[in-house]
Amino acid sequence: MDFLFEFSSSTALALLGALILDRWLGEPQSWHPLIWFGNWANYCRRTWQVSLSASPVLQRLNGVMAWSLAVLPCAMVLTLILWMLPSWLEWLLGAVVLYFTIGWQSLREHAIAIAKPLHDQDLTTAREAVGRIVSRDTSQLDETQIAKASMESVLENGSDAVFAPIFWFLVLGPFGAILYRLSNTLDAMWGYKKPDLLHFGWCAARIDDVLNFIPARLVVLTYALFGRGKRALHCAWYQGRGWKSPNAGPVMAAGAGALQVSLGGTAIYFGEAQQRPTLGEGPDPKAGDLDRAVELVDKGVYLWALLILVLI
């Protein structure tokens, strides 16, 4: 297997196989490789993180070392194993690797677990379900706030967990998909601006920003195609830039604009209220709008798959 996949029928077949596996099997829970990687990442953090009294520069340097130790050996070893296997297995192995790096069905299942009780006005169950996919305090959320939190997560993770791994798989083959997924996982673990991670997690956050930059802009265009296109692009450009994440902001703003709802506003993170910019235009979302957000991601996946099958 080539280190970098050539654009060929094998690439398209691998993508199709991965999407079918993901929809059929969903995300493995107890034996997913990312669980093992998380344990390895925790070891790297314990080994390399220095005291908060150390200089910010030293904390960042150690964060770079921890990121490199956590990600690069795993990505290189897995790629080497794939490279050593017979070429006729290229598409099948590519499909398996990509399957383990995308979370399309998992995203859908989490959203459905929120939408169903929300439709039934069972806010307690809906709060518990949304608490599994967002880092904010969900214990006091009302229907609108639950819908907002879940829609923001669906739109953002549509980019992070589905489209970005596919993009890097197309660009760099299995190595690209693995590199992206491990980097994105470390951002989720270390990328918070809390005192203990502000400098140590700087490298993980910045690398994730870089790897998501192009895919996020493609997702903006994708969301715009299946909704109010001009409004989606307007919101992504003028509202997304004011968001704390340079990639999540445009993606969520485009999705909100395409679906004609308003997201953002006040949210509580780690006990502190944060006033976030408004994203999108229109009324506050309801349960049905969460269903529409899932459909938006689904349509985007179908479009990407079709284009890849046709063009490669």
UniProtKB/TrEMBL annotation:
GO cellular component, one term: plasma membrane
Pathway connected to this protein: Cofactor biosynthesis; adenosylcobalamin biosynthesis
Pfam families, alphabetized: CobD_Cbib
TM ranges: 64-84, 161-180
Location relative to the cell: Cell membrane
GO terms for biological process, alphabetical: cobalamin biosynthetic process
Bilayer disposition of the protein: Multi-pass membrane protein
MF annotations from Gene Ontology: ABC-type vitamin B12 transporter activity; threonine-phosphate decarboxylase activity
Keyword Chaperone: no
InterPro entries: Cobalamin_biosynth_CobD/CbiB
Keywords associated with the record: Cell membrane, Cobalamin biosynthesis, Membrane, Transmembrane, Transmembrane helix
Keyword Membrane: yes
Family listed: Belongs to the CobD/CbiB family.
HAMAP family, per database record: CobD_CbiB (MF_00024)
Record function comment: Converts cobyric acid to cobinamide by the addition of aminopropanol on the F carboxylic group.
NCBIfam families listed in its UniProt record: cobal_cbiB
Protein name as annotated: Cobalamin biosynthesis protein CobD
